[in-house]
Batch of 3 targets.
Target 1
Amino acid sequence: MAEKRKILHVEDNFENRILVRRILQASGYEVVEAENAIEALDVLTHFVPQLILMDINMPEVDGYTLTQQIKAKQSFTDTPIIAITANVMKGDREKSLQAGCNGYIEKPINVDTFVDQIEAYLH
């Protein structure tokens, strides 16, 4: 059997973490969660994901800053980071991409298309 693809989901909202975990695990992904930047950086010392889902609006360190910190690490320069955010105003997508995100998914997520969106970033 093929090894499960690994995703790190950085999200401070408990309900959002549960929803994403359930959708992705049902599709065969291994999901590790972090609820803030400190946890995310700690997880990345022992877990190497194929993709990172990044909430943008988090307390203390926002997703833009955390994305820059992760992309600055040699071992994660090629790891896709996807902003998953309720920031949907003009310029928000561009700001995510400028911070180093490889893509952008709007909240609330569409449960019918979410896995397809993730798959697109993994290929």
Target 2
Amino acid sequence: MLCDHASADIPPSLDQLGLGPAERHAHVAWDIGAAEVTRGLARRLECPAVLAGISRLVIDCNRHPGDVASIPEISCGVVVPGNSGLSEAEADGRAERWFWPYHHEISGRLARFLRRGTVPTVVSVHSFTPCLGQGALLRPWHVGVLSNRDRRMADPVLAALAARGDLVVGDNQPYSARELNYTLDTHAGAAGLPHVSFEIRQDLVADTAGCERWADILAQVLRPVLADPSLRRIEVF
């Protein structure tokens, strides 16, 4: 289990990046509910979880360092004063302190599975805002299932979620993993490991009860998929 945007933490040394409390705890800073769902899924599936421990406004762990969105000066219309005019040394320092340890931990965990002869599956959890901007219509999806070229997990998971009959399920909606999927492309796609990413609408995981419900839902649909022995193969698509 992975969660790239698990934390809204901004170290005191960065002086809150010049932001007020509203911005520091909004979606612009982290994926609300994603960490709790990730931990709940890990407990239910009895598997390890790696969660990034820093706000994506400090450095986004789902963007390669150097990408314009890695340390954004403006994000979702919010100006981030503490990210303006950073030197290369400062940007590199953030990557060394927070980005690379997260990704090294993921690499190490996966390597240990492979050394034991087990092909691991990788599941990532994100959340998305109910509306895209003020005054916008409600996004209809309750959950999105994201994938790139490898659909081994996405297709059966989509079918299982749709079969419930009580959910609006997006296939690469509201975002597409074909366009942006750094963590899973790097650690799973390039290595031929089966993987999938979930996007859950944030009003559904805004409290503990909602997070527990969604951990239950996702565990129910994942269990039969993970139990399929044909999934445990390395395939590069």
Target 3
Amino acid sequence: MLLLRVSAELPFPDGLDLQGDAAFQRVWEAQLTLRALPAMGLPGLTVSTNLVGSVPVGVQIVAAHWEDLCLQADNAIEAQGTPPSPIDPMT
């Protein structure tokens, strides 16, 4: 089992990938593990662990083929609690 960062960068501003080729490339490269692991057929999930300001951040849990350890690790991490992050639907 692996415990990885979700992204090489903290969460991006909404719509960054639509602000030109350089911005799209930045998002594309930062999300490498989110793209590669499913293509390799590895089970994984992301769980929130904390907040940076009001933005949730977390970890990505990846297991070997046919393992259910991701869900067990997720339960252990979630049991520690994550501060709530209210979302304003108007922004």
